Amino acid sequence: MPYKKRKGERKPTFAVLGAGHGGLAMAGHLALLGFRTRLWNRSRERTDRVSDRGGIELEGVIEGFGELELATDDIGAAIEGADVIMVVVPATGHRDIAKLCAPHLNRNQVIVLNPGRTFGALEFLQVLNNEEAPATPTLAEAQTFIYVSRHTDFAHARIMQIKNSVPLAAIPAHKTPEVLDIVRKALPEFVAATNVLETSLDNIGAIFHPALTILNAARIESTHGDFEYYLEGVSPSTARIVEAADMERVALGTALGVHLHTAREWLYLAYSSAGKTLYDATQGTPGYKGVRAPSTLTHRYILEDVPMSLVPMVSVGKLLGVKTPTLNALIHMASLIHARDFWAEGRTVQKLGLAGMSVEDIRMLAVRGVSK
Predict the structure, then answer these.
(1) Using an 8 Å Cβ cutoff, are 281 and 264 in contact?
(2) By C-alpha distance, which of 260, 266, 251 is closest to 194?
(3) Is 73 tagged catalytic?
(4) What does the alpha-carbon distance between residue 186 and residue 335 come to, in Å, rounded to a whole number?
(5) Using one digit for the tens of pLDDT, what is the confidence trace for 255-283?
(6) What is the CA radius of gyration of the chain?
(7) Which residues of the chain form CATH 1.10.1040.10?
């Protein structure tokens, strides 16, 4: 439904950075809702197609044509005067996006990472500080991406689902209500999380996706993903490995003073899937029926989730004395599969600016935006 402005209320202007599956869906939807919307992408080919059409055609649960104010490969033009900057690129691109944005930002803007993966907002803040950005806007990250979507061409997106509830947190944490106040004018599905440590560590996909893809590597290669990813890819033995990895994630949250749901608890909360074990709960999840496996191992479930989610968990765990043998093994196997060093590529405490910090330091950075 198009947004209806209340009397005396100013509608925010949005800039969406990224014209892939998610960025096209978000930009088209925001424009269709009646918000001034700009779209940026590094590749001019994509933005030229959108510009030629004048906007983005949407189908699926949202249908219509979202007329954009601007589609460009000039990031300065895209974000100038924008109230909210929605970053919708793979987490592997967050660092580059922060560098590109840094010279053009003002302190009154809001930047939302959709999603941040693990410690994305902390990384973005670190880059802005290193780049000596003239102003630091309010940074926020979502726990997961709000849409399930695919694009059919460069100016056409299909939205299959809009999630009912997406936790979001800002740095500093006391600004979360301010961010929600402006973002929820367009997307009321966003809800408050305690802080960015919660949004970073309570993303269950970071555990399920890499583990199941790696543990089913031979089957994915031999069938090109022609099997039920969760219902067939999760066996009693693979479920035990996933559960061990999940317990290490929860232990890291405990060390940082954040209460996290286990994967089994999350399945119950999200899908009412009960079970004494993670295997039982997974098999009892109707929503997983028909979900196929990735067709290749060259997939974001490894290429994004391992360096941007698992590596920072292990790196911060090592800093704080939290043992993560299962997560270590998954990262090592992913590196072997792709003949790449995901440890070097990933978000380490050095890249996050957390090296040498205590629990108190990290919590202060996440909650207040500054360390001691």
Answers:
(1) yes
(2) 260
(3) no
(4) 40
(5) 999 999 999 998 888 788 888 999 999 99
(6) 20
(7) 205-368
